[in-house]
Amino acid sequence: MNNRQKNLLRILLLQKEGALYIKDLSKELDCSEKTVRNDLDRLEEFLLDYPSVMLSRRPGFGISLELNEEDRATIFKSLFSNEPKKAEDRLFEIAYELLTSKKAITLQALAEQYYLPKAAIKKDLETITDWLKRFDLELVSKQRLGHAIQGSELQRRSALARLSALTPSNPVEKNDVLQLFLPYEISAVKKSLVDMRNQFSIPFTDGALESLQVHALIMLKRTRQRSPVFIQEAEKERIYVRKEYQYAKWFFAQLEPIFRIAFSEEEQIYFTWHLISSKKIGEETKELAQYDEETVQIVRTFIDKMSKLTLVDFVADSTLTNGLFVHMHSVINRIRYGFPITNPLLSNIKKMYPYIFNMIILTLEEIKDSYHLDIPEDEAAYLALHFQASIERMESKKDIRKKALIVCHLGMGMSYLLEAKIEQQYQGIEIVACIGKAEASDYIDRYQVDFIISTIPLEKTSVENIVISPLFGQEDQQKLNQFIDKLKQQRTRRIQSSGFASMLSEELVFVDVNYEHRYEVVEMLANALYKKGYAEKEFIHSAVSRERMSATSIGGAVAIPHGNPSFIRKSAIAVAILKKPLNWGNESVSVVFLLAVSKKDHGNIRGIIGKIASLSESPALVQELASVHNKGELLQLLKQQE
User: Fold this and answer.
1) How many domains does the chain have?
2) Rounded to the nearest 5 degrees, what angle is found at the Cα of 99, between the Cα atoms of 96 and 102?
3) Quick one: DSSP state of residue 592?
4) What is the spatial distance between Cα 608 and Cα 602, in angstroms, rounded to a whole number?
5) What is the per-residue DSSP string for 232-268?
6) Mode of pairing for the β-strands spanning 402-407 and 451-454
């Protein structure tokens, strides 16, 4: 709302008795009666978020607000607080307003609303425009009308549910979208979801339950705004036979009397999609195999290709197979129904596990060709956790003493990774189970555990517990107060001297490289490999395509692009030192290593990536590399790091 509309609302809020007339309001606001009527339309849209508040507009009787004192105080507090908005809060609010408004919003109105120059608001709109692209939405400017978002209702809802991702500094555990709704709406929806879960014994993860809560609240708001979703008839028939459709009907039967609103058949099917796509704990693999042969085939193909690519026998790990059946089932349905996820740990996973993440990306290229399934990098990062956990599980040696329970709110992949890390590094610990917060109380009542390791705070538990980060960094290891197997972590990042140094040559080293985009750098290096006889011509396209799937920066101003090993004749590493740092996804990069490792030498790639990752963790060394202008000097400096 602009300042005039806020002032109009303030006048109506202060008018506790009687009504006001349009002509009087126009005089007080110094505008035309038509403008007042238009502003009242805007207020009606705003007040949809307050179902107990009604704007009465009766000809001959005037204009008034019908509301209780609690709502009056709440609206005053939210609208007329003098506390300045932080830049991230402003960005969040503007995006929300654009996504939910049926009318275009002018730059002038936003500048007045936030007391900022138009240039600052324009910069915010540019940020929002880039963010909207991931949902196939477009922010367009209409002359004399303002800015409006173009795209389907499904795309709008996906963006609304992931507004928290618009501000990268947002904590992993915090979902700001919930703050957009009233407390009674949040509690009513959450209670109905928990009741549904208990009624039908659905093993939702904690994260899935919160995600469903957000989507249900958005659905409630958009239904009030008369912004329905469109569902094709063929899709309706396919959904009617799913058990999740019955869950959805039961859920809506609880909500409708609470909010005094009727949800359409399309909304019930839309919510069924979310139920099908939600992460669940402990579903039986046999049950999935009975009705979802596609999932079974994709998982088996995935594990087989990863085993061949990494030379690790993932096929022998039944825990990995079972976990992937459940996880991939959700991934496939999220992609099918157009529910992209945002992985808040993506950047950290790429930095901590660059080898396994990049092997996942290479495997996904083949999965895409075989099954026409395009899995984005946010999903790939979660898959990487499953495989990294498998590697650490198979390499660990167990010495059981204390029984520990893991409570993790980020799903099975993260739970298994955490379990593997702890049992690998602490020989005196046995992990008895990995569960969500909701199941913790019941579990400790039935089973004996010595202590709980949790990724979120636990309330009302008599068992000793400790809260750690799900990624289990050094600080968390110190908190457990037990010895750490540092040699194991160093081993995963070290390379034998014959692997890295033997693949470097002066003819593949380039300094003072000056390009505007990372794709150009990758293409230049790949082309050099082709011209020098190290790779087939197809490798150039392969390397650039891989970079398009996911930026290969690993932190520390270093990137490690690569391509399909099938196109490599002789293993080599091409190196580029950039004249000026280049934007590489969400990182700034100065040193680039293009990896061209043939299938014959693929057993060395884990160590090679580990070696480069260790280099990236030394800022002084990276700065020294980035400052070199002589090929021979650079080569000597790199070989000294063996």
Assistant:
1) 6
2) 125
3) E
4) 10
5) -HHHHHHHHTSHHHHHHHHHHHHHHHHHT-PPPHHHH
6) parallel
Average pLDDT in the 70-85 region? Answer: 66
> How far, in Å, CA of 412 to CA of 434, rounded?
8
Give the CATH number, domain containing residue 451: 3.40.50
Residue 306 · residue 355 · CB < 8 Å: no
Ramachandran assignment for 226, one of left (phi > 0), alpha (psi -120 to 50 degrees), beta (any other): left
Q: What CATH number is attached to the domain comprising 123?
A: 1.10.10.10
Q: Between vectors from CA 379 to CA 375 and to CA 381, what angle results, nearest 5°? A: 120
Res 146: pLDDT: 92
- The confidence score (pLDDT) of residue 537 equals 95
Q: Which whole number is the average pLDDT over 5-11?
A: 84
Report the Cα 517 to chain-centroid distance in Å.
Answer: 25
Q: What is the CATH number of the domain that holds 541?
A: 3.40.930.10
Q: What is the biggest distance separating any 2 CA atoms in the chain, rounded to whole angstroms?
A: 91
Q: Which residues contact 601 (CB under 8 A, 6 or more apart)?
A: 571
Do 387 and 407 fall into the same domain?
no
- β-strand pairing of 62-66 with 138-142: unpaired
Alpha-carbon separation of residue 517 from 579, 585, 588, 609, 623 (angstroms): 13, 10, 12, 23, 21
**Cα(180)–Cα(60) distance, integer angstroms:** 36
**Tokens representing 222?**
């958009």
Type of residue at 317: D
Containing domain of residue 327, as a range? 285-393
DSSP track, 25-69: HHHHHTS-HHHHHHHHHHHHHHGGG-TT-EEEEETTTEEEEE--H
pLDDT in tens, 121-160: 999 999 999 889 888 899 999 888 899 999 999 889 989 9
The DSSP letter of residue 506 is G
pTM of the complete model: 0.60
Q: Are residues 613 and 504 part of one domain?
A: yes
- Measured CA to CA in angstroms, residue 146 lies from 95, 102, 149 at distances of 14, 12, 10
Calpha distance 155→99 (Å, rounded): 10
* Closest listed residue to residue 280, CA positions, set 438, 160, 420, 172: 438
| Cα–Cα dist 284/221, whole Å | 36
The residue written with tokens 């980060």 in the block is 469
Query: What pLDDT band is residue 292 in, cutting at 50, 70 and 90?
Result: low
Q: Are residues 69 and 112 in the same domain?
A: no
**Coil vs helix vs strand at 533:** coil
